[in-house]
Amino acid sequence: MKDFSNVFVFNHPLIKHKIAILRDKRTGMKEFRELIEEITTIMTYESMRDVELTPVQVETPLEVTTQYKVSDDSIAIVPILRAGLGMVNGVHRVFPTAKVGHIGMYRNEETLQPQEYYCKLPEGIENKTVFLVDPMLATGGSACDALDALKKRGCKKIKFMAIIGAPEGVERVAKAHPGVSVYVSTLDRALNENGYIVPGLGDAGDRLFGTK
């Protein structure tokens, strides 16, 4: 895969450790869900490195001082349904006041193309830094369509976070949306003939919610 200035692949030992457990088919739903949240939390710290800060006056026990905070109303999380829901709490651990919107996409199993069926976003989304989240970045179709939907609604500061990415999907998103920072905790080998990431971890939604 080519190098893109807007793509960030994590190489953190703790994430590698958690990914190894996450991949294991014997890992149960509860532990799988907790691992998704924990990895997302680690990723969120890094992806918030450049968020805008506002100066505030704080009175310590000794004096008044100028400090800096992230505005409570400046961050929004938008999971791509349904698997993206598993990452929301991971972001909220870092920034619990973030508003949450939802974009519903499903993949046509014949064409592998994404179809939007739901979109509900917080008021003033166009003025917020938006974290679009989905555990799996496979073909990149759902991510690109969700990013298009956010941009149509005026969003200008968007970060996309995925737990596992395929080179094909990462490259597609990076090319189509060069202004979006793409964070992937782990870059896998490729997509198989059915459009699934390998070695991957199976269907993230099914493993998160116990539907298979």
Write up what this structure looks like:
Strands 1, 4, 5, 6, 7, 8, 9, 10 and 11 form a nine-stranded mixed beta sheet that branches. A two-stranded antiparallel sheet has the order 2-3. Strands 12-13 form a two-stranded antiparallel ribbon. Helix 5 links the parallel strand 10 (157-165) and strand 11. With 212 residues, the chain is of the alpha/beta class. It has six helices and 13 strands.
Question: What is this entry, summarized?
Answer:
Helices cover 32% and strands 30% of the residues. With 212 residues, it is an alpha/beta fold. The strands form three sheets. Strands 1, 4, 5, 6, 7, 8, 9, 10 and 11 form a nine-stranded mixed beta sheet that branches.
Question: What structural keywords apply?
Answer:
13 strands; nine-stranded mixed beta sheet; single chain; 30% strand; 212 residues; alpha/beta; 6 helices
Distance between the termini: 33 Å
**What is the helix content?**
25-40%
Radius of gyration computed on alpha carbons: 18 Å
Q: Tell me about the biggest sheet?
A: 9 strands, mixed
The quaternary state of the protein chains shown equals single chain
Low-confidence stretches: none
**Total count of strands:** 13
Structural class: alpha/beta
Shape: globular
The SSE order reads EHHEEEHEEEEEHEHEEEH
> What is the mean pLDDT?
93
Number of helices: 6
User: What fraction of the residues are assigned to beta strands by DSSP?
Assistant: 25-35%
